[in-house]
Structures are given as structure tokens and as C-alpha cells.
Amino acid sequence: MRRTRTLPQWHGWLFIAPALLFVTVFVLIPLGQLAAMSLTDRSLLGGGKLIGFTNYWRIWNDASFWRALEFTAKYTLVLTPILMGLGFAVALLTVKNTLLKRLTRTIVFLPVVIGLSSSSLLWFWLLDEQVGLLNKLLVDLSLIREPIVWFASADLAFWAVVISITWKVVGFGMVLFVAGIQSINPDILEAALMDGASYWGRVRFIILPLTRRVLLLTTLVSAISSMLAFDQFYIMTSGGPRGQTFTAVYWIYQNSFISFKLGYGAALSIVLTLIILAFSTMQIALTARSAET
Amino acid sequence: MTAAALTSESARTISAPRGGRAARGAYLATAACVAVIAIMAAPMALSFLASIKTAADASAVPPHYLPKALSFENYSKVVNFQAGLATYVGNSALVALMAIAGCIVLAAPAGYGLARFTMRGREVAFLGLLAPIMIPYQALLTPLYLDFAKVGLVNSHLGLAIVHTILQLPFSVFLMRNSFESIPREIEEAAMIDGCSAWRRFTRIFLPLAVPAIVTVALFAFINSWNEFLAALIFMNRETSFTVPILLVSVRIGNHGAVDWGALQASVIISIIPCLAVYLALQRYYVSGLLSGAVK
Questions:
Q1: Is residue B71 domain-shared with residue B160, that is, in the same domain?
Q2: Do residue B59 and residue B170 come from a single domain?
Q3: Chain B residues with CB inside 8 Å of A256's CB?
Q4: What gap in Å lies between CA A10 and CA A14, rounded to an integer?
């Protein structure tokens, strides 16, 4: 091939080198530092004596961490099906490219591009028991008698966050699902129509199976970001009441930057990284496979 | 390929009309669309309406849906809040611009190198550049904070921009590589015959052809940097170095203890306007970026 002769292929490294250097300096080295720190009793005030795996042993016995992890898992397990189900439903509703449906898609997608801090403070206001308009609306519609005090109980606070996040990110799944459905070969759907398949029959036996990979991938992406939730809880619940709504990342933040237990926070971070790694390995494997076909 | 502009061929056959039942279905679908729009648009619309109430009206108990009188009182409060809105918007904008520059300067050559050279170890390099997706950046903030503190990158625009670049780099590299790969060989070969060097081919031929991908990279870098919260909370801990998301939280705490609801909603509106504007202007790029890189 002429290409290989006219142009030394190793030149490619020159183009990649800056990015590789950046990742090395700002990701790989800090990751090494994190691992090393997790074996010490370092705090922001000093320390840094090697203490072996003591931090990990402490994590094993740290009921608060396990409660935070359990809470994060519950949040992910409750939220993900809601997001995927509603996202798919709205995608089915708006998959045609009529003006109204495209407008619907645009409006549903808008909250995806705003900040989590903005949406969390927006909902913190809407849900307030005194000035909140959602409470007022529910009272005006006679659905409730008294305004709901959302953030005084862990259960209600949990649902308040779930509601706000559903509003915020339902459009993410929708957009991916719409693209997935629209890329189905129209001949297949035409054939099913000829055979007299009902609308729901087509959804069940053609659209769902043919968009399975998109569904799976979106589910994973969405689950990973829920496992890493922080902003919405920091802003809406502050981890309360009584520390019942701390997520894993929030607990790490609390240890590292509020209590300054850096060594312990580092060990917690390593544990969280391993958990996320399991998820994202699946995600990458799936992406690679869908790129091949 | 954008969601809005796809061929309507497949879309049409998915719900092809069949007699009276289908007509009823179409009415129901229209009603459902209107309901969805109302539910999804209401929160931001109400927030906007609250932001233009008078301060007293915005904190009234029980609340009203609509403003009694138009007022910019809440906005002027936010404009003069602590170090002043201009400082905070300036911080956010500067950090976002630096993150955009970082992503483009690093990802465009990297994407070119990965797409157009076949040196040994290329696959490993590609995986290495995608690796940060697998490591939650939340975990890296402690070591980064300690490193940055040593070299004066805490409370610095550059420091936070570096963190935001880390966040966006894998996606940017992925996007740039795909974009360069889709450029036909013939164009490159013609340039090679003309005796262009690799660098000149990159800057003169490839970069101009990859403008859509670059716009997408910049768009995502902007929105994610503008909205990023945790790193900003940790790294920008001086009142004058806050970014807009941190400003929002301080507005809620306020100066006197009680929440100033009107000012809070005014600051929420200020924080979301740039995102909505940029998204609506570049919707096509955003959706195509989302589709090609559901990686992150």
C-alpha cells in the first residue's frame, strides 16, 4: 500500500500524545494516589501513616456506609424502571415526525440540558409545604387536604427526589428510544401490518425486540448515573432526615471533605470505583458489540 | 442522523391508521401529547412566573400561580448578591470556555491519530483514552484536590476547567475519531499526492471537514461544565470563585436565614437560560452527539 510508504505510521502517536499525557497526569496518577492514600490514616490536617488494609476493614464494619450504599441501590432500582418505562412510553407516543410530536419531544427533552442544581432547587421550591405550588395544586384539585411536608420523612424525601429526577431526565431515554424505533426497517412493520398485527402486537413483538440493545444500553447508562447520585440529595435533602438519605458519593464527600478523613474517604472511593467498574464494563462490552453489527 | 429529521417512513408504518379505531387512537395521542407538554413545561414556566413576582408576592403563603404585578426586584437582588452576579457568570463562562478549548485541543488530534494511523498499540491507546469513563470522577476529586492545592489550582478557573475536561474527554475523543473515520480516503490520498505533511493534512483538510463533530464536542463541554456541581463545590470554596450552580445554593441560604424564594427562582432561571438557548440553537448537534456516543 502506498500509504504506509509515504507516511510513517508512528506519527499517529504524536497526535495522540497530548491526550494520553493529560489522562495519565489527571486520571491515572490520581487514581494511583487514591489507592495509596486508602492505605493510610491521612487527614486534611496531616497524618499519612501506612495502616495497611485497616480502612477497608473499617468499611466492612461501617453500618453508615452500608446504609448509604443500600439507599443508593434502592434509589437506582426504583428510579431506573420508572425512567425507562416512561421514556419508552413517551417515545412510542411521539415517534412520528408530526409537528406536535416533535414539539412534545423538544419540551420533554429540555430539562435534560439544564443543571441538576437548577432542577433540584426548582423542585425544592415546588414541593415546599408553605410556598410550593405543587402542594397548592394538589390541594386545589382536592387530591390532598393538607400540604405534604416532603422533606421531614425519609420516605417522602426519597419520592420527592425521584419525582424531580424523573422530570429532569425522562427525555434522555426518550430521545434514544425514538431513534431506535425510527431505525427499524419499515418493511418489517409494513409486513406485520399486512398480517393484521394490532398496534400493541407490533410494539410487543417487533419494536421491543428490535430495540432491545438500545434499551439495555440506556438502562445501564442511566443506572450508572443513579449509582453516582449526589447533587439532588445534597440540595434537596442534605442527607436528612437523620442521615437517612445519604448516597454513596454523598457519604464519601462527607468523610473526605466535611470530616477530613481523607484516607478513609479514599478507601470508600476505591470501593465505589470497583462497583461502577462492573457496570461500565458491561456497558463498554455492549457498545462494542452494537458497533460491530 | 437526528431524531427530528429521520425519514418518517418507519415512523408512519409504526402507527398506520386503520379505520375508526385508529382515528380515535390519533385523538387520544394528540390529547396525550398536550398533557405531556403541560406537565413537562409547567415547572419551568411556574419558576419563571415566580421570578418576575415582587419579592413579597413570591414568598406569600399560600402562594399564587400568577404574579400580581410584574417586578424585577428578584433579579436585581440576584445581580447584587454577594460578589455580584457578573462575577459568578464570568467564573462559569471562563471555566466552560477553557473546558471547551481543552476538549477540542486534546480530542481533535487524538481522534485524527486514532482514525488515520495504523501504528502498533493503537487499540490500547484508544481504550486508554476511553478509560476515564469507567472511573467515576467523583472518586478522583480528593487526590486532585490535594495535588491542585500544592500548585495553586484550587479556587482557580484553570483547575476546575481541567476537572471538567477530564469529564468530557473520553466522549470527545470517541466523537472525533468517528468523525475522522467517516471522511473518505480519496480526499486524503489526493492531498498526499500534493505532498501535504500529516500536520497540514490535519489542519487544512480534516479539521474543516470535522466541524460538526467539533461543534458537538464544544456543545457538550459547555453544557456539562456550566452545570457541573460537585467539583465546583469542592474546588471553588471562596465566595468570589463560586460558579453559577454554587451561587444557586448560596442564594437559598441567603443573607438572613429565611429562604428568599423569589431570588432563588430568579437565579434558577438565570442558570438555565444559557443551556436552553445553546440547546435550542444547536439541537441537531446535541441529539446526534447523544446518539453516537451514548458512551457517556
A1: no
A2: no
A3: 141-142
A4: 8
Contacts of A234 in chain B (CB under 8 A): 229, 233
Q: Which amino acid is at B276?
A: L
Instruction: Output the nine-digit C-alpha cell for A57.
Output: 476493614
Residue A46 DSSP symbol: B
At B224-255, the pLDDT tens digits run 999 999 999 999 999 999 999 999 999 998 76
Chain A residues whose beta carbon lies within 8 Å of the beta carbon of residue B57:
none
The range of the structural domain enclosing residue B103 comes to 80-292
Local structure of residue B132 (DSSP, 8 states): G
Q: Per-residue pLDDT for B167 more than 70?
A: yes
Are residue B38 and residue B122 in the same domain, yes or no? no
With beta carbons less than 8 A apart as the criterion, state whether A223 and A80 touch: yes
Claim to verify: residue B278 and residue B224 sit in the same structural domain: yes
Where along chain A do its domains lie?
63-292
pLDDT at A51 over 50: yes
Grouping H, G, I as helix, E, B as strand and the rest as coil, residue A250 is helix
Sequence letter at residue A258: I
Mean pLDDT of chain B: 89
| DSSP bridge partners of A40 | A50
Candidates B63, B114, B138; nearest CB to A131: B63
What whole-number distance in Å separates Cα of residue B250 and Cα of residue A232? Answer: 15
Residue B4 in domain? no
Q: Which of residues 85-104 of B touch A (CB under 8 A)?
A: 102
Cβ of B245 within 8 Å of Cβ of A178? The answer is: no
Same domain, B69 and B125: no
Instruction: Give which of A274, A278, A269, A279 is closest to A65, Cα–Cα.
Output: A269
List, for residues B178-224, the tens digit of each pLDDT value: 999 988 888 877 877 777 777 888 888 889 999 999 999 999 999 99
Chain B hits for A284, Cβ within 8 Å: 130, 133-134, 295
Whether B3 is in a domain gets the answer no
Q: Are B274 and B226 in contact (CB under 8 A)?
A: yes
**Within B52-156, where are the H helices?**
55-58, 73-79, 85-116, 122-130, 137-150
End of a domain among B77, B98, B125?
B77
Query: Around Cβ B41, how many Cβ atoms within 10 Å?
Result: 14
Number of structural domains found in chain B: 2
Nearest chain A residue to B249 by CA distance is A235
CATH top-level class for A63-292?
mainly alpha
Domain end among B77, B93, B108: B77
The answer to whether B143 contacts A106, with C-beta atoms less than 8 Å apart, is: no
Write b or e for each residue in A17-39: b if 16 or more Cβ atoms lie within 10 A of its Cβ, otherwise e. Answer: eebbebbeebbbebbebbeebbb
Around A218, how many Cα atoms within 13 Å sit in the side-chain half-sphere?
29
Using the structure block, give the residue that is written with the C-alpha cell 415517534.
A95
Kindly state the cell numbers that stand for B165.
475536561
- Cα-flanking dihedrals φ and ψ of residue B66, to 5°? -110, 150
